[in-house]
Amino acid sequence: MGLSRSGELIKVPVRAGERLKQLRSQVGLTTREVADLSRKIAAGEANEEFAVSHARLIQIENDESTPSIYKLFTLSAIYGRSFSDLVSFYLNFGHLAGYRLSIPLASTRQVAFDEYDEARTVQFPVRFDPGFAVEKTNLISRLVEIWREVPVALLEALNIRKQRYGFIGLEDFTMYPLLRPGSFVQIDDQQKPQAHMSYRSEHERPIWFLELRSGYICSWCELMRDRIISIPHPLSPARTQEFAYPNEAEIIGRVTAVAARLVNHREPPPYPAAKSPARS
What we know:
The protein is of the alpha+beta class. 25% of the residues lie in helices and 24% in strands. The chain has helices at 16-26, 31-45, 54-61, 69-79, 83-87, 94-102, 140-143, 152-157; strands at 2-3, 9-10, 109-111, 121-128, 144-151, 164-167, 184-188, 208-212, 215-224, 227-231, 241-244, 249-259. Helix 2 crosses helix 3 (54-61) and helix 2 (31-45) packs across helix 4.
């Protein structure tokens, strides 16, 4: 703690090295004892990078040196704390998801949202306003009556973490305008296409997320023995594609939800000009 110019108490962040020193004190080890234990781990891994010398540990605890991933692995084992916990002393994992979403890659890809701290809590809606009319457009903040902190581990028990997600590339117009470039989709990897199914509308027809040798594609599909046909939206400039299944294309799962952009980064390219018939 410290004092601001106005005399108010302000919280001063604890240095990474100091936090590691606190962990060492909690397990009752000296720096030389940690060094001895680290040599056993280095021998077990057959790699001297895992060893933490007495002098190096003092430098780390004084923030004069940043430990490598090998040495953090060793300290994690000795102190009995998770590896991600020790890494979080040096990196802000909370910024990671934001950077993932902000990097505008052109290709469609899978996006993993890993959970690094099961004890961490998040704000989660636990009671909804009974008078809210779902038929009308409104703000989510007005829909929720009470927000409380819920452990992330509880959300994991609800299977939220175990879902798979995909990002529709900024230049991928395969399912445009049904799926806009820049959208995020939720994927159920337990569902697979079935042959000869009928659909009443395009919104009822399943959309599938496929992994190809050269990347990913998100589209309607038809499965025919050892071939799978990727079918784009009829208003899309993309073309139907056929792949050997499963050698050239693997089904990741069915798209079950989408968070879509309402405004595109760019307009879709024009349709390719039709080829003129060859003259005789």
